[in-house]
Amino acid sequence: MSGRNYWHVYNQMRRHYLDTGVAQGRTDLLAEFSDMDPAEVDEGIAEFELAIGIRMRGVDLNGCKEAQAN
Questions:
Q1: What is the pLDDT of residue 19?
Q2: What whole-number distance in Å separates Cα of residue 48 and Cα of residue 9?
Q3: Other C-beta atoms lying within 10 Å of the C-beta of residue 29
Q4: HSE-up of 45 (CA within 13 Å, CB side)?
Q5: DSSP per residue over 4-15, as a string?
Q6: Which of 29, 2, 4 lies closest to 14 in space, CA to CA?
Q7: pLDDT tens digit string along 2-56?
Q8: How far apart are CA 15 and CA 21, in angstroms?
Q9: Residue 49 · residue 61 · CB < 8 Å
Q10: For residue 46, is it left (φ>0), alpha (ψ between -120 and 50) or beta?
Q11: For residue 70, is pLDDT > 50?
Q12: Helix axes 38-52, 6-20, angle to 10 degrees
């Protein structure tokens, strides 16, 4: 167990987005958070996408608890 969770992924994505204006890709995140379960990384991605408005709450997409892209 790494001690990191989906909030770490969310915060990394948020920082990257604020610095560059571009959302970090899943492949890069999976490499950076290789110590985490990919499903947990996906949860962080989903949380970030909900926060910036590109997902809608309550819709299942590829196993993520949250959402669908608009």
A1: 96
A2: 9
A3: 22
A4: 22
A5: --HHHHHHHHHH
A6: 29
A7: 699 999 999 999 999 999 999 999 999 999 999 999 999 999 999 999 998 876 6
A8: 10
A9: no
A10: alpha
A11: no
A12: 50
Residues 42, 65: contact at Cβ < 8 Å? no
Which of 38, 48, 40 lies closest to 16 in space, CA to CA? 48
Length of the chain, please? 70
Residue 52 CA: distances (Å) to CA of 1, 4, 32, 36, 37: 29, 22, 21, 23, 23
Give the 3-state secondary structure of residue 65. coil
Give the per-residue pLDDT at 69: 43
Name the nearest CA neighbour of 6 among 53, 66, 61, 69: 66
Q: Which residues contact 51 (CB under 8 A, 6 or more apart)?
A: 10, 14
